[in-house]
């Protein structure tokens, strides 16, 4: 993928992440108190709400893509050899895939009863 | 007669392990530049000081160096304006030192050439054997005029934090010139230019520190050029395609017949 497209993804995920994190903070810290929402049973109920589960999955993907792409940029600036650049690019994709898979696993297990209170 | 203490960083990579500071007391006069002071020190105190200079009027860009910690042209910096009894002259950062205040600008010019600082056109015959001039409208000239003032002194590249980190980053001078030719209405090579800039070490690595623009002795704003370049690179659309560049001036197309 061209660098301009990757940077477009970086800018877009930044904007979307700000919106999603703001909604998340309002929902979990303002509308109802944080101390209530942090209770394990409440967290499970949040995950089992399909709308919120999709929202959390979107937040997970957006933040991870933005974070790891940003790290890729920093690592590209640290060294400029071809093998380093190749490893950084491949490592970024692998890190995003593994992290999204692990985060999604938590959401899926919570929805389908793999985790119980 | 007043005097100034001139501290010059001395370093010969063939004989010295690390740079050292040498001090020279130089008599000053009204209108004296740092280059004048350095030449006085070289001519009357220590003949071994190495420095590069030519035009003495901020046109050639040869005498770029760090003066009191800031990249400047020695011929364009007056001793009086520095307001101190001590002037420290050091070689430019981000370049290898050849000797004392003389730096190796090879990488600078290699990067400049990589971004094709010349017109790319489809009418090769006219380019090789010109019959007239290419017409450029005044408002089109206005878009690129400030970038044509670049004298390739290397001060902007020396001050750039990204150049210090990323040796493949073209630097502010090369990219400002890339913008200058991209927007030149006589140029038809926009797609090639955008492709050359759209890399992992290209236009996106600028952090917009803006130091390039603040040190330019000719008032060029390379940081602006880089930001404007990004817009074109992001859209992927060159301002003109092959055959759409300004036409050759002729009696038939002349606007002021």
Structural description of this entry:
The complex is a heterodimer of chains A (117) and B (257). In chain A, 85% of the residues lie in helices and 0% in strands. By secondary structure, chain A is mainly alpha-helical. Chain A has one domain (3-111): 3 helical TM bundles of succinate and fumarate reductases (Up-down Bundle), CATH 1.20.1300.10. Chain B is built from ten helices and seven strands. In chain B, a hairpin with a 2-residue loop joins strand 6 and strand 7 (102-104). The radius of gyration of chain B is 21 Å and the shape is elongated. Chain B has two domains: 3-104, Ubiquitin-like (UB roll), CATH 3.10.20; 106-235, Orthogonal Bundle (Fumarate Reductase Iron-sulfur Protein, Chain B, domain 2), CATH 1.10.1060. Chain B is 33% helix and 14% strand. The A-B interface holds A 2-4, 7-8, 73, 76-78, 80, 85 and B 162, 165-168, 198-202, 204-205, 233-234, 236.
Draw up the topology in text.
The complex is a heterodimer of chains A (117) and B (257).
Chain A: H1 3-31, H2 34-37, H3 40-47, H4 50-78, H5 82-111
Helix pairs in contact in A: 1-4, 4-5
Chain B: E1 3-10, E2 20-27, H1 34-44, E3 64-67, E4 70-73, E5 86-90, E6 96-99, E7 102-104, H2 106-114, H3 124-128, H4 138-148, H5 155-159, H6 161-165, H7 172-182, H8 190-197, H9 211-215, H10 222-235
Parallel strand pairs in B: 1-5
Antiparallel strand pairs in B: 1-2, 3-4, 3-5, 6-7
Helix pairs in contact in B: 2-7, 4-7, 7-8, 7-10
Short description:
The complex is a heterodimer of chains A (117) and B (257). By secondary structure, chain A is mainly alpha-helical. Chain A contains 5 helices and no strands.
Short descriptors:
heterodimer, A: 117 residues, mainly alpha, 3 helical TM bundles of succinate and fumarate reductases, elongated, B: 257 residues, alpha+beta, Fumarate Reductase Iron-sulfur Protein, Chain B, domain 2, 2 domains, five-stranded mixed beta sheet, 7 strands
